[in-house]
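Appendix B, record 7
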Amino acid sequence: MTTGKIIKALSGFYYVLAEGEVYQCRGRGNFRKKKVTPLVGDIVEFKADNKEEGYILSIEDRKNEFVRPPISNVDQAMIVTSAIKPDFNALLLDRFLVLVEAKRIEPFIVISKMDQLSDGEIEEMERYRDLYEGIGYGVVLSSVSDESSIDQIQSHLAERTTVIAGQSGVGKSSILNSIDPRLAIDTDDISESLGRGKHTTRHVELYEISGGLVADTPGFSSLEFGDLELEQLPECFPEFVEVQNDCKFRGCLHNKEPKCAVKTCVEEGSISKQRYDHYLQFLDEIQNRKPRY
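Structure tokens (predicted):
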């Protein structure tokens, strides 16, 4: 038996990377009986007589997993949001950050297409960079023609398994292609009528890039907080966690409670009012979601 990592799943086959070689494997029948599906990112034990005919025998425990996209054992998420076409959307960025924080995965932010902005628009993106860096997130202001920004992204990727998140058309595949042109990942022009890109990525696959593994995925098709409990939401805002012990009540939701340290910080300006407003919006969404049976 050999230990390896699933780097691609396609048409019932699992492609397992082990000691620099890739083996095409099928899952054992008992996985189906146990309702276990191997995921890209899984560490597995497998047996293979040759590179085309292998069988996955067991799957190691996962440290985390996503349902959409189906991937496991992620170290960090690179959240790509464009400065323009589609326009920068702070609410959507905060939604991605919450989804990633809820999985205890470390995010870093890439704001793409900076080369298409006016001076005033650049200053606005720099203010957002300062805001998110102040919270503790890594932020790269990027354009595919700017080698230094591509170098910054590469430095984040080394020795880690990274999932890329972001809406269609923000330039995720273009960034990967500029890091490693051999990938030649499909990119489409923005659909002008829709104002968003077409989905060009069809399946989850881990690519060896910059000394790490990077998942170019069909994207986070579900941006709903389906599994997130109300009490978890404040934990997904690092700047809230920093001051929450100063709240009068334990388990404070930072909403209508008196003597709330988070609300005081918002009033004083040390916590972004925009981020706090987004938090209240997410809180309301979770409180009012319909129960699932």
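Remarks on this record: Residues 24 and 52 are 5 Å apart (CA to CA). Residues 230-287 form a domain with the Ribonucleotide Reductase Protein R1; domain 1 fold (CATH 1.10.40.50).
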